[in-house]
Amino acid sequence: MKKIMAKKMTAKTLIANLIFPMGLLALFAGCGPASDQSTLERIQERGVVRIGYANEAPYGYMDTETGELTGEAPEIAKVILQELGVTEVEAVLTEFGSLVPGLQAGRFDLVAAGMYITPERCQQIAFSNPTYVIGEAFAVRVGNPKSLHSYEDIRDHEDATLGVVSGAIERRYAREIGIPDDRVMTFPDAPAALAAVRAGRVDAYGGTSLTVQDLLSKDTSGELEQADPFTDPVIDGESVRGYGAFGFRQADTELVEAFNEKLADFIGSEAHLALVEPFGFTETNLPGDVTAADLCAGRTTD
Fold first, then answer.
1. Could you give the residue ranges of the DSSP H alpha helices within the chain?
2. What's the pLDDT score for residue 6?
């Protein structure tokens, strides 16, 4: 009996001896220098950054021929991050509506998807200063059967329907213009929304002018066109335009400040305009003196 008891005690002792150092290891693992690093310090030390994108051309998408992340936002990010000493980019594909939650959850270090700065989003994440400003457009079936040239046209046409991307600003535009919710359909991405127009599930897809232009340039069906002319939505008496920027976690103030410092010297330069020209951006898309602080407060100087 004593021998059996001795064996049991020995087993317990062995388990305790194993658990104790493992517990200490787990305890101290979260207390080392790495845990005190800011995101900027970490990505500079490792030389690697994770970028969230939504596969929407021309803002941020995967080039199927090269397998590289490209677009207006990723290409600018590469330049700025290179100046900050970060040379390697890991791309993380996410539906547009999941970019903010994914950033907050730490799935990636920044969002490079041409995301508009809005007061609502500013409550959730931080933004760099904007890199562009742009208006809206509709993709419709050839001939624009319901003569839809604005968000107001859809509102006023009793059976007109609109397709928008989940989480995109167009959903808010539709609601503020007064389009009933039951006449707005959301889709995971722009190609899905465009396919719905082609199939007659919705009468128009609302997106940025460059998104619509890019999608239609690749559409070979001959069944779609861009609504022309088109009038940007008027909200609170003002014609609205979108300002796109990079998104960061609110705690990453050091990274945002460093990013903005480099961005200020780059946006509007010859190098910048040459970089974004292949994606359809021109000098007319420059954001001027508008800042993220302006846009988060709901004002612009444009």
1. 2-29, 39-46, 72-83, 99-104, 119-122, 151-156, 169-177, 190-198, 209-218, 253-266, 270-276, 292-296
2. 38
